[in-house]
Amino acid sequence: MKRLAWILATAALAPLVFVSRGAPPKPVYVGSRVCASCHDGPGMGHQYSKWLLSKHSQAYASLSRPEAWEIAKISGLREAPWEAAMCLGCHSTAYSADERDVDHETFRREDGLQCEGCHGPGSEYAAEAVMRDRKAAMMAGLRMPTKDDCLVCHMEKGSHIAVLSTPAVDIEEAWKRIAHPLPKPSRMAGLREKEPGDYTGSAACGHCHNGPDYGHQFDVWRRSPHARAWAVLATPRAAELAREMNVAGDPQQSAACLKCHAPGPHADEGVGCEACHGAGRKYSTDAIMRDRAAARAAGLRTGSLNDCNGCHNAAHGKPFHAAGAWKKIAHPSRLPSRSAAVKYKNPLRLAFRPGTSELWVTLETGDAVAIIDTRTRRVIAEAPSGAAPTDVAFTSDGKRAFVSNREEDSLSVIDAAARKIEKKLTVGDEPHGVLVTPRDSHVLVLNTSSEDIHVFHPRTLAFEKKLAAGRGPWDLALSPDGGNLLVTNMYSNMTGFRQPLAAELTVIDPVTARTRDRWLVEDANLMMGIDWHPSGRFAIATLNRTKHLVPLTRLLQGWTITNGIAVIRADGRVDQVLLDQPGLGFADATDVEITPDGRYALVTSSGANQVAVLDLAKLTRLLESATEEERRRVLPNHLGKASEFLVKRIPTAASPRGLAISPDGRLAYVANCLDDSIGIIDLATLAPAGKIPLGGPKEITKQRWGEKLFHNARITFRRQFSCHSCHPDGHVDGITYDIEADGIGVSPVDNRTLRGIGDTAPFKWEGTNPSLKRQCGARLSVFFTRNLPFTPEELSAVDYYITTIRRPPNRYHTPGTRYTPAQRRGKEIFERTMTNDGRVIPPEGRCVFCHPPPYYTSRRRFDVGTRQALDRSGLFDVPHLNNIYDSAPYLHNGMAKTLEEIWTVFNPYDRHGYTNDMTKDQLNDLIEFLKTL
Amino acid sequence: MKRAAILIAIAFASSAMASEPGAEKLPFVYTKWKQFTVKDGLPDDHIFSVKSDGDRIWVGTENGLALIDKKSSKVVKVWTEKDGLPFRAVTGIDVDPKTGDVWLGLFGGGLARLSGGRFDHWHQLNSGLVNDVVYGVAVENDNVWAATTAGASRYNTVTGEWTIFTEKNAPMEEIWNYGVHYGDGKVYLAIWGSGVLEYDVKANRWKDYVDPDGEMEIDLYRDDGIVHVITTGANYVDNVLWVSSYFGVCRYDGRNWRSFYNMDSGLPSDFNNNLRARSGREAWFASDKGLGAVMDAETNTWVAYTRDPKSDSGKAVVTRDKTVLETVEMGLNLPHNFIISVDVDGQDVFVGTAKGLAWGIGEGYYSGLRERPRMLAENRGEGK
């Protein structure tokens, strides 16, 4: 209370400070109870009570309901709902505020969507003198929201509708429902608190008694009618009942009513914890509460039905079913465990542990490494690793394993014999390939998203350096003589707007761990698996050849995305051949392994569920007999050449990814990612020779079914590509496509990520598809696949899977932690309303107008002046900005290679926000903030 | 008193020894030079920057970048804009000691990284670089600093964050940054009109060194601080700060300043474009009238290398307090007397001039002074 008075006094001085210094102080969030000190009572239209009775006040508490988990899942979230920025953005207030922008004495996140969620942080306008002058209040940060502001959170969200089965919010009706007008004339009154005595208030209980470890007890109370027992006294019905009971005056001030509706000194909490459990000051310390007897001795009471009956028995003529009510308010500290989510294994990559018969397999969704004894063909152990383990490598003695964890940005160092993690090393963003160089001199980790390579010492685990890779480094292989280390990169280099692709092979000196060269593979992308021929004369890497400069609908005329390999000579010359054949696409060539005798190369097709066996002598002859012109122009595109060297197509289970060949060269092992199994191939007969189950669930969930469909090329004409081909890891391939059938180059559009997009409809850059169902339904057939569309059931499964593709954690900021100085300055620019020279920026010129949190999209279409000659319209869907840093290039057609270029090059007339008055350092700050979203 | 007497006695003895004919304490003189010009494959004769990196010499010119292999003494690779170099004029070069990546300051083209043959390019439109006119570049741990005409930029290669330093957030009265150097945990910026700024990386703290005489172009009070606020280069080695300017050069050991001018030292000219310090006692200055090397700062012993444009022959003049101790004639040393850049590495020295590159080979190099016979009129120039 003292604190509250201080805040109000301070706030009252705010205008003086403004006048004397000339710069408005930064407003901070003070919490709804500060507003309540004036805005309640009949003279103020019971505004605070109305809010307490609204769902807004329970918005945070609702995040611990079981349904919230499912919503989080189909929103692509990794965190618990009550911790996820995406949920907190609408279910709480000030979620993105720096901790310094919140008054922790008075503000409580648990109060849900509070007054300041709509009206802006209140410290500077809360004083009565300011509030009585609307203009001054607005200058001090008061906002008067519109229905559009409500729509930021209340626009139809597929995830909520799917889980809660509630219709979309009718904003007109909702606006009426939350109306809280001031009576005219108004009479200021507000929350008046009594001396607390030994009462601490329920919020104090909630400090400990919340979260999953305490059964979310505070949230359970917050959602109960008990928490609204005082507020309900402000309703017309309460007034009616009071009259019937001959209670005079305001029921909220009546002792007769308060006896049951607010028995403690903190009236607005209604019937709080201490109403049943006794005043808490003497027992609420942690030490006492952990000793039940001591707590009882200090006054803790166990509530009983008798307590309930005191107020509820035939109250207001209503019958009271004690047992039912008791059950309803139950708040055990231990919750029944959530039904265990079906968790698949998703094997990705394999490696033999040196000197043993153990085959180690990374389990992407199992967060572990499966260890198989290849003699018995059984899984003998699962070693925990980290989130989404991707690749595994060993020291030469096999004593230590290194496992990259894609969703955790870490490298697990595992004691291979003990199967225990020794240490986790921090690496770059989304690590994939790992390799230990000869004589254990270095361990290299490829960071696919941050596009660099971390180098550690395998023994000391000391970080040595970071090398610049190509775009999306994925796999690496060491030449047999140990002299050349080749790294494949998934994405094409940024070659320029509507220019042919060129993927990089990064050449590293394994001794010095320095980049020696960078070879370009023309017209290629998605270079993934790589292996050297034992002769050292060449290496083979998988690739896609994506013809993004012709309309995708040309699929029918021959090819648009073709799949094959690169044959890389030791001197850097590269040949390309396709593994597709007419009618037999080899979609998503993923990994390659060459037999120890150099006779065969095995290549997995994760989209066609097969392993191709290439006769390397035949392949070499084909290349050597070809003219330079044939090698450059014919072989990379010829669908008939694979038959000359592709000697066998071996069927596999769903989505084969990684390969490993036994040291004796007799057997090959294939990671069947979406079958949770390892397939075995007999290399003498080139036939399947068994399967090792990894212990995944038998049940095929809707999500799993969708995942399989997403990764399968059956949906495209002649199985040329899958959804995954353009959206590897559910993300982007960095390519601008021409997806229209009406002519070459019309309306080219940049590929957009699928991570966490479920609630960001409409889809397509022109915003013409209101749902994923439409985006991936018949339209997919017309514009992309030119084949029979998914059946309705399949479509439903694919859409469901897409919504569950998880968004990686933001690497630049964790909600609730401090922003860096640059991020903080950038946030102010993002939210600014005035230019540097003091002009008011019209609302549509402000960043937050089109990009409001938490998704940072208004889900509407705007013309930001980026229309180009080939575009049909200048109106484009506002993209969401979450993890925007990892999806270059930018703008609707990918013409901005960096975030800076959006404004330095493509915003000459301030159509894309007011930015031209900004200094260079302000733009840098803005970008630092954008990277935190 | 006793201590002073001993010191005087030692000084007298030294002086006596030096006066013995044929045995005098003299500095090392570079007499073996190689030259590289467009005839040898350089893309241009205007050498704006030079950096020695192990077996390689990186040469930044007005029209491209060149790589010289020390073993073969050949220009083995040249990059111009046609070869992917993002901009023609290369004014700054530094090499990341861990990765071997080469960072380039481009005079009008921003900042570039050459890694494995690939150029990555950052400029004021596609990145947070404050300005495209980059004079100098320096690698500091995971950061790369660029001295530009509109302030200094720091690029964090791990987080991708750009930080701009100008008058807003650093004691930078002028923002025209000429040179940047990293050494011993500190970044030094030489600024046209703002002296030298020191940035302590760990403490995240700035310190400025300005001329106590203000902007006067005379040194009113000698050795009272930096010689002038218009500085062109700053190096920090062995806890000693060396500074070059258009009005002389100076040295600061953390306690005392010492200025050097053409009028009272072997510095060929007060107009100095750059410098490279080898140690706390030795530094090399790129002047408009030759290459000056203070080989022993304490005794003000210098070697000035110049070239006679008429005879194409060069000479080195050894001085102490302006007294000529010896003059070493040599057939070839510098291709031109207008020196723009200089680097030292191991025993060797590399000099960028307005008409080609000179490589001084320091066979038998020794630091400081050593008793040796004079090399009067000796000519050991060996040519290429």
Describe this structure as you would to a colleague.
- The complex is a heterodimer of chains A (933) and B (384).
- Chain A is built from 31 helices and 32 strands.
- By secondary structure, chain A is of the alpha+beta class.
- Among the domains of chain A are: 1-192, Flavocytochrome C3, Chain A, domain 2; 194-320, Flavocytochrome C3, Chain A (Flavocytochrome C3, Chain A, domain 2); 343-456, Methylamine Dehydrogenase, Chain H (7 Propeller); 703-804, Cytochrome c-like domain (Cytochrome Bc1 Complex, Chain D, domain 2, Orthogonal Bundle), CATH 1.10.760; 821-930, Orthogonal Bundle (Cytochrome Bc1 Complex, Chain D, domain 2).
- In chain A, the strands form nine sheets. In chain A, strands 1-2-3-4 form a four-stranded antiparallel β-sheet, with no helix packed on it.
- In chain A, strand 6 (400-405) and strand 7 (410-415) form a beta hairpin.
- Chain A is globular.
- Chain B is mainly β.
- Chain B has a single domain (28-372), classed as YVTN repeat-like/Quinoprotein amine dehydrogenase (Methylamine Dehydrogenase, Chain H).
- Chain B is 5% helix and 49% strand.
- In chain B, the strands form eight sheets. A six-stranded antiparallel β-sheet of chain B has the order 23-24-25-26-27-28, with no helix packed on it.
- In chain B, a hairpin with a 2-residue loop joins strand 20 and strand 21.
- Chain B is globular.
- Chain B starts with a helix and ends in a 12-residue tail after the last strand.
- The chains are: A alpha+beta (933), B mainly beta (384).
- Chain A binds chain B through residues 464-468, 504, 506-507, 512, 514-518, 812, 820, 822, 885, 897-898, 900-901, 904-905, 920-921, 923-924, 927-928, 931, and chain B through 98-101, 113, 115-118, 120, 124-128, 130-131, 142, 150, 157-164, 166, 168.
CATH class of chain B: Mainly Beta
Count structural domains of chain B.
Answer: 1
Mean pLDDT of chain B: 91
Architecture of the domain at 1-192 in chain A in CATH? Answer: Orthogonal Bundle
| Major β-sheet annotation of chain A | 4 strands, antiparallel
The SS-based structural class of chain B is mainly beta
Proportion of residues in extended strands of chain A: 15-25%
Predict the CATH topology of the domain at 1-192 in chain A. Answer: Flavocytochrome C3, Chain A, domain 2
Strand fraction of chain B equals: over 45%
Ends distance of chain A: 36 Å
Tally of helical runs of chain B: 1
Low-confidence blocks of residues of chain A = 1-22
The CATH homology group name of chain B:
YVTN repeat-like/Quinoprotein amine dehydrogenase
- C-alpha Rg of chain B (nearest Å): 21 Å
Spatial order of strands in the largest sheet of chain B: 23-24-25-26-27-28
Q: Which of globular, elongated, flat, extended, rod-shaped describes the shape of chain A?
A: globular
Distance between the termini of chain B: 56 Å
The count of β-strands of chain A is: 32
